[in-house]
Amino acid sequence: MSKLMKRLSVASAAVALAAGLHGAVQAQETYTLRFNHVLGPNEPFHQGFLDWAERVEQRTDGGLTIEVFHSAQLGVEEDIIEQIRQGANIGQNTDAARLGNYVPGIAVVNGPYFVESLEEAYQLADSPTMQEWQQELADEHGLKVVCFDWVQGFRNFFTNKPIRTPEDLAGQRIRTPPAPIWQESIRALGAEPVALNFTDIYPGLQQQAVDGAELVYPNITAANLYEVLSHGSETKHILLVNFQVVSSQWFNGLPEDYQTALVEECRTAGQETSATIEEAVAEAKAEVMEQGMTVVEDVDLEAFREAGEKAYEELGLVEAKNKVQEEIGK
Question: Mean pLDDT score of the chain, rounded to an integer?
């Protein structure tokens, strides 16, 4: 072989090696987020999360993929949040009540009658106080809020008796998630809160560990809870704003354009899903009535609003509530 041919051969080998190394580096730069939520596969949120995943994967050319796990397949929400804080590549659909365990003020978003429309819920993103709380969650507790444009609809009381006033809830053991603002809210509204995971509601009702639950209509149809509950009373006491959280450490390790894609597509999918939820609520309400559930619409909302203020007072959140509501013009 001539010297020229040898040089060309060596050069080609070097190029091939460099290409191989580049390919290996490229392969190492792909990222996966394992995203967990407690809702069933038939819930509107699940399809919304799948849409979010598809758009992020397309936008990053497959560099960032989201694997969505429904029905708490990865574990209990509180346990998942702790794994997220340790830096795991896991995400969780959660709420302000649970985030309030780390930054107490943010729990107000989960309080009674805090926001009462999609417009008010979306305005929260522009609240300076909300931005400060999110920064504190990220910097001090390892929880990065990707977005919170996912509004699950109004929560109502579902029981085996009609509920029209707070007094009607006296003695009723109502399932709630295990978070202070949630439990105090239900207590303020007149019931006895009982902490249960979402997947335990059906057997809990069967075994009479609880007398009812406060949920959105699509929860009732998705989990067939009309089989163990007879009445839905439209107290509309919480417009449930959901937060998508990931590890701050993991998020900060993403390329900047991947971070942007994750956040922007989260907001887009969330607002689309929230609009879909409004339609789903009407359909679910009709379905539970077809299944024999009685819907109580003549509820004394003013009495419930007044009662709900006790939750903020009990937890020392009146000032925080008033400040954020002022910032969003409520």
Answer: 92
